[in-house]
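Model it.
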Amino acid sequence: MATTKYKRVLLKLSGEAFSGDSDFGIDIPTLRRAAIQIKNVMEMGVNVAIVVGGGNIWRGAQAEKDGIDRVTADYAGMLATVINALALQDILEREGVTTRTQTAIDIQQVAEPYIRRRAIRHLEKDRLVIFAAGTGNPYMTTDTAAALRAIEIEAEVLLMTKNEVDGIYSEDPNINPKAKKFDRLTHLEALNLRLDVMDATALSLCLENKLPIIVFDLQEENSLERVIKGESIGTIVTSEKEDV
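Modeled.
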């Protein structure tokens, strides 16, 4: 087995990570490339859990602006994450990765209910676990779900993927090419600067529990494996500047 820096990680896959270059839907080739990277990491002896977003299918914030009740819009968004989770599970299993999907809302015909001890047991048996439906509560983002699940399963790091963005910038680099990239930040700096890392609730959870965050571009070749080996790519957010 290759030498790895982390033994248990939680990977947050946004809805955009499912749609590839499209604005909507699931791009199977993009998902398959991600699945191969995930498989390679698991073969290195790393426990992997994944929280999926649903923005490629449904955006609750936009639906609310269009006149749909916020709670209804958020529950619809949870269902979108279940669709993504099932698609990812199928592709991972076709690559030979034993996978379990757990949902924060009750859909037992297609997935297990979220039970922390069961999730940890799956990881101990070298199964990949996908967490869908966010926290199961409206007004909570899948970023918050990612932070919460990472803490619950005792992950060593929260890996955040961004589409075509290789870290945290002062502004959107796709809009302003002169935006400054940060190689390292503290949780407090990210909160105070109001950077586009994750929502404040999720970031505060990571701060309180000293959970490191690494933001990187999953589309870069072998990027996930490089992160797991401890290479300095993307942006790392830690409780203190000197934290590794």
